Amino acid sequence: MPKRLLAFLVPAALTGWFLRGRLAIAVTKKALPKRISADPAGALPDGLHIAICGSGSPIPDEQRGNPCVAVIAGDAIYVVDAGEKASETFNRMQLRPDRIEAVLLTHFHSDHIGGLGSMALQRWVANAASTKLRVLGPTGVDRVVDGYNEAYALDSSYRTAHHGEAIAPSSSAGMTAEPFEFAAGEKSCVVLEEGGLTVTAFEVDHSPATPAVGYRFDYKGRSIVVSGDTVYSDSLVEASTGADLLVHDALSADLLKLVEDASRDAGFLNRAQILVDVTDYHATPAQAADAARNAKVGALALTHVIPPLPIKALEGPYLGDAKERFTGPLWIANDGDLYSLVVGGREVDRTTLFSRGPIG
């Protein structure tokens, strides 16, 4: 290339790069105030709203984080499970961490608790929380909380030393455990009653992971149920009876067999056996549909999606005959989903809280 032409092109390229950078800064500067001050949960009509902060499983999935559901009742947010990426997705949905009243754990598998420390940290520093994060769960939740508190103890002390007590108060760092257990012969109990919301925990079957529970949320005549991880469960059907929305885990054994076979062919025999084992403690989409039909719920959303569905055409094989078994609204949940149950209505509306833009 002639030196004169090269001398002309290089400054032109640098100028273009500089102008693009200046334009990007201008666009971001304009978008940031609106983005940071956004409070979509605060603008929602009174009712129950369910934000899916993680619809995946321990199997790596580019489209889905580990299990996490945020239940919005009035102005308060209650988080069910906090898997890896939960706080990141929570923030991407522009939900305010300082609105979190409590986290409710269904059981203690790593994919349901892996993001708990980050969730607590975000709530703590978002607006100088005056209380520790409450974490409710069945027997064993205190061990999980104590472990996280110890793991984050040094981190919390650094942040208080750096930012000061007014920004990162040491007295409210970390979490406090609130374990519950069912009375003898009982399979459910009320674990929260506040602000017009009643939360009932109920037993599910995720053996050998025990105890394991699901949760029902009732608020001003609207109701949703989050199954946690379970096979088809009569106790879940009983607890879900008449609910507006059931959010149920679901695994496709047929699609998972493809992943198992590929793992075995690649020589990953341990992984292949694990994929065989997990089929016996998760419901299939058809079984989740049966539970929804038998409980006479209004709508069904399938989450904890196993295996990943990298292309949309796999959704049909994943569902199988679930839509024939349950004829109400049925969705495969995605990260970012928002299901809204407005007080005084019967409908369940599905939208998304994921926004697009320079920092969306």
UniProtKB/TrEMBL annotation:
Keywords, ordered alphabetically: Hydrolase
* Molecular function in Gene Ontology: 3'-tRNA processing endoribonuclease activity
Q: Where is the Metallo-beta-lactamase domain?
A: 65-271
**SMART domains attached to this UniProt entry:** Lactamase_B (SM00849)
By what name is this protein known? Answer: Unannotated protein
